[in-house]
Specification:
single chain, three-stranded mixed β-sheet, 3 strands, elongated, Arc Repressor Mutant, subunit A, mainly alpha
Length: about 100
């Protein structure tokens, strides 16, 4: 999909920018779970990329609106690990080799 396809929708543009800069990632086992990586540089880069994307189609979103959308998506993302995977690991702990 073309980068310009994301320009009309702020939510999609920010999601694309966060994922492509590796500021967030999607759990490989739970496609509905977004994980915040915790890389400040990647998050700053995502802001710059999202700004370029939304400007590329002539849409001029205000800086505050763009920052708010990035903040919303980062707050909604799980910190560092998928909570569903973490819950599964807690429910079924693995012992040292040979103790299953």
């Amino acid at each position: 999909m073309s980068v310009n396809a994301y320009a009309d929708n702020l939510d999609s543009a920010v999601r694309y920018a966060l994922e492509t800069t590796r500021a967030t990632t999607v759990c490989p086992f739970h496609s509905d779970v977004t994980i915040r990586v915790g890389d400040d540089a990647a998050e700053s880069h995502a802001f710059a990329r999202a700004r370029k994307i939304v400007k590329s189609d002539g849409m001029m979103w205000k800086r505050e609106v763009l920052m708010e959308e990035i903040k919303l998506q980062l707050v909604d993302a799980a910190d560092g690990e998928c909570p569903q995977c973490a819950h599964s690991m807690d429910a079924f702990p693995r012992g040292p080799k040979g103790e299953n």
